[in-house]
Amino acid sequence: MDLRPADRDELAGMLRAATAEGRVLDIRGSGLHARRGHPFTADDVLHATGLTRVVDYVPEDMTITVEGGVTVGEVLRLAGERGQGWPQAPSQPAATVGGVLAAAAGGRRRLRFGPIRDSLLEVVVATGDGRIVKGGGRTVKSVTGYDLPRLLTGSLGTLGVIVQATLRLWPLPMAERWFTTRGDADEMLDLAQGVLADLHRPTAVVAGPTSLHVCLTGVPDDVVAPAGMVDAFEPGGPGAGTVGSPAGTVEASVPPAALPALARQLVADGFDYEAWMGTGICRARVSAPEDVQAVRGMATAHHGHAQVIDGDDAMRTDPFGPLPAGADIMQRIRASFDPAGILCPGRFAAADPVPA
Q: In what order do the strands lie in the sheet with 161-168?
């Protein structure tokens, strides 16, 4: 059954009923990140897309508070009208704010603006048993207690439903342009490292097997093409919004200095990839379960890890790799947010409560 609450109170009531009846729920926003984590079977799907209220927008404080079902495109539209933006957002206008935060699905501008969790100031979440809990604060000075916003970011709906979020906004730059060039992988990686060394705080440096894309922001006189590159003429960056493939995508995270070596190994083994230079993140396209293990093996060899961020059920039999340290702590946290274990059980297998 599809559950579509119109507000947080109705949503909380549905969670309380599901807990009382022991019904398993899958939590959805726009569904763009539904193919993450271990596959599991749900009795009902709870859609948070009905929570579309803009609660508060204070341009003077550069903060906006919205319900979890508001789309990224709507936040960018409202902020843009006042000369502001949400630079950590992904290039997916239809994605919901709650879904983006739950999946920790930040965009390519991470190199300059940081991960998306840094933009979340305050979060309101409905727990598995229907409690409404708030963490963080709309101003840094008012923040006390545990860092609930960071805990919820990337939790994939296993701790609760994000019903409201306060986001930190940034002034739109006077100028932003993407530049591009093409060549073989070694040429692109060498040029990328030159850009990182020579330019002051580039916004994004994205290398692929046959191309390099660089985003610069600032005053117009400073936003000029690096040597050997030309205008990309594509707002949002070349191929924006096309990360992923019908088959699947694995995201590897390694120390930034190890990223060129990982990229060279990927191209040598025939993988297409998108390396976010300077951040240590590389997204590799995969087409079979054994590809997942191959990419993970390369990341591990470079002291990193890898997870499936998009893939069919066969690719997600082991989406996260080895269990992290502190699995028992994760289980206790999950049990405190979702005592009956009704929220996406199995998606984070390591965090599921241990059966009595």
A: 54-58, 63-67, 161-168, 120-126, 132-136
The amino acid at 186 = D
44-47 vs 25-28, strand pairing mode: parallel
pTM: 0.90
8 Å CB contact between 98 and 68: yes
Tokens representing residue 127 in the block: 């727990």
Query: CA–CA separation, 297 vs 250, rounded Å?
Result: 12
In angstroms, what CA-CA distances link 71 with 9, 91, 100, 124, 286? 20, 12, 9, 17, 28
Please report where in the chains the tokens 């984070």 appear, as a residue. Answer: 348
Nearest to 163 by CA among 40, 292, 66: 66
Distance (Å, rounded) from C-alpha 270 to C-alpha 272? Answer: 7
Show the tokens assigned to 38. 């271990």
Nearest to 133 by CA among 117, 119, 151: 151
Distance CA 163, CA 107 (A): 22
CB 188 within 8 A of CB 211: yes
Q: Round the average pLDDT of the chain to a whole number and report it.
A: 91
Collect all residues with Cβ–Cβ distance below 8 Å to 304 and sequence separation of at least 6: 252, 253, 254, 255, 258, 262, 280
**pLDDT, tens digit (0-9, with 9 covering 90-100), for 101-124:** 999 999 999 999 999 999 999 999
Q: SS3 of 85, please?
A: strand
Cα separation, 8 vs 11, in Å, equals 5
In residues, how long is the chain?
A: 356
Residue 132 DSSP one-character state: E
Which amino acid belongs to residue 135? G
Give the end-to-end CA distance of the chain in Å, rounded to a whole number: 29
Tell me which DSSP letter residue 83 carries. Answer: T
Q: Structure tokens of 163? A: 């019903």
**Amino acid, single-letter form, for residue 234:** E
Token digits of residue 287: 């087409």
| Type of residue at 198 | D
The per-residue pLDDT for range 273-282, each reduced to its tens digit, is 999 999 999 9
Rounded to whole angstroms, the Cα distance separating 218 from 177 reads 9
